[in-house]
Amino acid sequence: MSTYAVGDLQGCHAEFVALLERLAFDPDRDRLWLAGDLVNRGPGSLACLREVRALGEAARVVLGNHDLHLLAVARGGARAKRKDTLAAILEAPDREALLDWLQSRPLVVRDGATLMSHAGLPPQWGLDQAERLAAELESALGSERSGAFLRDMYGNEPACWRDDLDGIDRLRVIVNTFTRMRFIDARGCLDFVAKEGLDSAPPGFAPWFQYPRDDDPRLLFGHWAALQGTTPGSRVRAEALDTGCIWGGTLTALHLESGKRISVPSRH
């Protein structure tokens, strides 16, 4: 049995199929961890959703910001963006089954000291706390008021976590941390402007993985294609999975047992 962690698909279905073939992936034997952003920007978002859902228990998926954007458009009244490639999903005959499945995905996947989320984990949150906070948001997505939450979840304030936050402010910091985080300051406050490489860090901010932690988990994340699968200057065991398939890079799987990376080139 092998376990592979794969970076952002973003609708790159042909490359996903090619990667599974190269891995000789067997869903009866192997396991797949997917770091979120299954959809959007690429041409095969609908096919990606169907492919991953069909893997059943062999695939463990965390939600990314593009997955949540799809849910917000479909069920929260949000407007689609000009560059979205979500129309095929929204018009599909199995639309509701796919959206139900996606909405029931977690924000974190954990096995012992290994944790995967879409954007990473700030040093202020331990693994147990991360699971508890993720569960709060997952509960909101599973509630009768999920539509209202999806409508209001995004926004840049508050940018800093506090234990006494409640309501939509609390949920917004949780969702932003797990799905949008790149640069933070020493308190863990999020920056939402810089999205490129490390040299784009605003004054007083650094990549979340350049801050030390009191524990020593293995942290898997996607979301940050500009890193090209690297974590320069990291002070924690962080492993970047998004190697920019949608931008002409590669789609990469990390073999968790050996640390080996296997990639297939983008067809874009």
How do the helices and strands line up, and which of them pair or pack?
Elements lengths: L2 E4 L6 H11 L7 E4 L10 H10 L4 E3 L3 H11 L11 H4 L4 H9 L4 E4 L2 E4 L9 H15 L4 H7 L14 H14 L2 E2 L21 E2 L10 E4 L15 E4 L9 E6 L5 E5 L3
Parallel strand pairs: 1-2, 2-3, 5-8, 8-9
Antiparallel strand pairs: 1-10, 4-5, 6-7, 10-11
Family: Belongs to the Ap4A hydrolase family.
Pfam families: Metallophos
InterPro entries: ApaH, Calcineurin-like_PHP, Metallo-depent_PP-like
Labels describing this entry:
hydrolase; ApaH; globular; 268 residues; EC 3.6.1.41; bis(5'-nucleosyl)-tetraphosphatase (symmetrical); Purple Acid Phosphatase, chain A, domain 2; alpha/beta; bis(5'-nucleosyl)-tetraphosphatase (symmetrical) activity; 4-stranded mixed beta sheet; 5-stranded mixed beta sheet
Describe the overall structure.
This protein has a single domain, classed as Metallo-dependent phosphatases (Purple Acid Phosphatase, chain A, domain 2), CATH 3.60.21.10. The protein has helices at about 15-25, 45-55, 65-75, 85-90, 95-105, 125-140, 145-150, 165-180; strands spanning about 5, 30-35, 60, 110, 115, 185, 205, 220, 235-240, 250-255, 260-265. The protein has about 270 residues and is an alpha/beta fold. It starts with a strand and ends with a strand. The mean pLDDT is about 95. It has 8 helices and 11 strands. The longest helix is centred in the middle third of the chain and has 15 residues, at about 125-140. The strands form 3 sheets. It has a 5-stranded mixed β-sheet with strand order 3-2-1-10-11, covered by helices on one side. The radius of gyration is 17 Å and the shape is globular. Helix 3 (about 65-75) crosses helix 7 (about 145-150).
